[in-house]
Amino acid sequence: MIIRIQKLLTKSAVDQLRIHLDQAQWEDGRATAGTQAKDQKRNQQIPQQSEIAQQIGDFILTALSQHPTFIAAALPLKIYPPMLNRYEQGETYGLHVDNAIRIVPGTPVRVRTDLSATLFLSEPDEYQGGELQIEDNYGTHNVKLAAGDMILYPSTRLHQVTPVTQGCRTSAFLWLQSMVRSHEQREILFDLDQSIQSLTPIHGHEHPDVMRLTTTYHRLIRQWCDT
Q1: Does the record carry Repeat as a key word (predicted)?
Q2: What is the CATH number of the domain that holds 149?
Q3: Of 60, 98, 186, 215, which one's alpha carbon is 20 to 30 angstroms from that of 51?
């Protein structure tokens, strides 16, 4: 399941973040690449322990906690602190799969990477190339979203960022561990949630069908969730 989280950040919020990002110190992105990905990665990142990275990461986490589509799709248990990267002309990240476990820097906390996410901080017309390509059983999906939108997808999927041929692509990215390990079960819960959300304004909370769907949703949550 690949989900677009629309308008996670407003345009004004993105503009403010970009002011800070344009003034930040960037380093070689290979510093945080896994063994398999290191040879595929050519981009730049802001050091995770820097003050600006932590402030922006906290801002993004607050926005995620308040976005109903993200909560419904991810059912997050642990979120690896958001990181920031950019791709300038000629930079790319070849085909790879994300590490299954990430350790939060400076802590003993381990995060199983059930889901990966990219938050776009550049508008599509600011750069050429730089598409996020995600492979699944139905082929390759090319993703290039508006600034402030996020894409959420299973971390088990092979993916890459195609070479930037012009301009600069800036984004944030993160991984998370869901309360529901199974992608199929998470998709079922998301579909149920979206049906409840669309039917409730039409029929009301007390309509028998809405109540039945809501009851089923919470029964499955109790059966499938780990906390």
Answers
A1: no
A2: 2.60.120.620
A3: 98
Helices (H), 129-227: 183-203, 208-224
pLDDT of residue 109: 96
153-163 core/surface letters (b: 16 or more CB in 10 A; e: else): bbbebebbbbb
pLDDT for res 35: 62
Q: For the chain, first and last CA: distance in Å?
A: 22
Q: How many domains does the chain have?
A: 2
Put simply, whether the predicted model's pTM sits higher than 0.85 gets the answer: yes
pLDDT in tens, 32-84: 666 666 678 999 999 999 999 999 999 999 999 999 999 999 999 999 999 99
Is 169 annotated in some ligand binding site? yes
Same domain, 174 and 208: no
* Mean pLDDT to the nearest integer, 160-184: 97
159 is in an annotated binding site: yes
Answer whether 77's CB lies under 8 Å from 181's CB: no
Instruction: Give residue 82's domain range.
Output: 3-178
Nearest in space to 116 (alpha carbons), one of 44, 42, 34, 16: 34
User: Contact, 26 vs 52, CB < 8 A?
Assistant: no
Tell which phi-psi region holds residue 7, choosing left (phi > 0), alpha (psi between -120 and 50) or beta.
left
Phi-psi category of residue 112: left, alpha or beta, with phi > 0 → left and psi -120 to 50 → alpha: beta
